[in-house]
Amino acid sequence: MRVGLVSVLVTTLFSTSAFAGKLTPAAVSASSNYPEEGGISYTPERLSDGKVSTSWVEGDKGSGLGAWTEIDLGGEKSVQKVKIWGGLWYSADYWKRANRPKEIEFEYSDGSKDTFTLKDEMKVQEFVLPAVRKTSKVKLKIRGIYDGTTWLDTAISEVQFFDTEADGAIGVRAVTSSSTLPADADGNYDPNNASDGINDTMWCEGNKAGDGTGDWLEFQLPSSQSVSKLTLINGIGTSMPFWMKANRATAATLTFSDGSTEAIAIKNSMLSQTISFPAHTTSKVRISFTTVAKGKEFNDLCISEAAFSE
Known about the structure:
Jelly Rolls; 2 domains; eight-stranded antiparallel beta sheet; seven-stranded antiparallel beta sheet
C-alpha cells in the first residue's frame, strides 16, 4: 500500500496509568524556517499539526545549530513530559537526507532550562522532565545535530507536551489486532499506530481473504477502568485523497473484559468522531468491525487513531 508517508519505525511508549493531558499549543514561532518549495511549507506550525509527514525545517545559515522554535502553551501549565519526532519524517529516505537534532535545550518562561539528548533513530522519543515545570512557553533550541546525507537543514516533524492533569483519555498498555498488513516501502501498519496520537500513522488489517469485516483491534488498559466514549479517526488520516483509497469502518461491536458487548455505528468520515455508549468497567476493549465502506484502491480496512475515555 502506498499512503504517502513512512510509519515504519513509530514506537509507542505506553503508560501504566491514565495519560496526563496532552497540551494544545496556542501558537508556535521559530528563529527561521526553510522557504516553501513545490507547494510544501516548513513553518513552525507544522510541529503541532498532529501529522509526522509535515515538518518544521529551520532556515538559518549553516547546519541549524542554535536555531530554535518556541511553543506558546496559552497560559501557565505544569509540564511533565514531551514527545519528539526528530528529523524529516516524510519518508525514510528524506529522514536520512536531512539533519536531525541530537541535543535540544528546553528553556521555560522563568528562564530555567533542561537539555535532552536524542538517539539517531526514526522513532518517537519521550522525555520526562527532571522536575515538573510551571511554564507558559517552551523554547526548544538545537544544541547538537546528526548530519544528513544530502541537506544541511535540521528538521523536527512533531512535538507533543503533556501536563500533570489527566485529560479524560485513558492510557493504553498495548494494542493487538486480528491481522496486520505487512510492512512495505511506506512503512508498517502496526496496531500500535492506532494509539500514538498521530493522525497520519495507521493500523491496516492484513486479511487477504476479506475487506476488514470481522477483523478487530484490542486495547489493553493499565487497569480496570470505566469507559463510555470512543474517539476515532476512521481510515487513512493523511489527507482526503489517501482517505478515499482504503476501506473505512461503518459499524463495530465493542467487547469488554467481562464479555459484555455494545454495538456502535461509525461515521464514514475522516474527521475525528466521538462515539458514546453505556459505561463499562473493563481492563480491555476489543473493537470488532462488522461492516465497512470500500475504498477506491486498497481492499484493506485502516484506522488512524482510537482512544477511550470516561
